[in-house]
Write a structure and sequence with these properties.
5 helices, alpha+beta, 159 residues, 6 strands, 30% helix, globular
Length: 159
């Protein structure tokens, strides 16, 4: 697992105010077990909210498919809203350069607590919201990778 911190805790306090994000990393990359599919969590630089991704290799039956297709197969936080080649993600491991990534985020107004909104004084947008922390987002990325893997195994079993 690779972990990167782009901002210090002090920088985060200045940018978004105090909160659980102060001690969290900004990028984490790992491989889902048992599929070995790449998973990635990336903090949005401006808003401070997390985005989560799982990738599939060429040859996977969902390679090149749209986000809406994935939402009919696996359910993650607020649904998959990203489907693109690895060249457009921040994956660091060159072994995953040919993967197709599916992603989701925790930046939904009136549902997710977005750190930037605190500093902007947008209290109306954060009332009754929940900050989706690193642990929660990692679990969601694992659910996504597991669903992609199970779909592939199911398709192989049907042939």
């Amino acid at each position: 697992m690779r972990t990167d911190y782009w901002l210090t805790g002090e920088d985060r306090i200045l940018k978004w105010g105090p909160g659980p994000w102060v001690d969290e990393p900004d990028l984490v990359e790992w491989q889902h077990e048992p599929s070995q599919y790449p998973c990635l969590l990336l903090r949005q630089a401006e808003m401070g909210a997390w985005c989560g991704y799982a990738g599939v290799p060429p040859g996977h039956p969902l390679y090149g498919k749209t986000a809406s297709k994935i939402n009919r197969i696996v359910h993650v936080h607020c649904g998959v809203n990203f489907a693109e080649h690895a060249k457009t993600t921040y994956t660091l491991d060159p072994a995953f350069k040919d993967c197709w990534f599916f992603g989701f985020d925790a930046a939904h107004a009136n549902q997710d607590l977005i750190p930037q909104y605190i500093q902007m004084g947008l209290q109306g947008l954060i009332k009754d919201t929940v900050y989706r922390d690193f642990r929660y987002m990692r679990e969601q990325a694992e659910i996504l990778a597991q669903g992609l893997w199970e779909y592939c195994n199911h398709q192989k079993g049907d042939t």
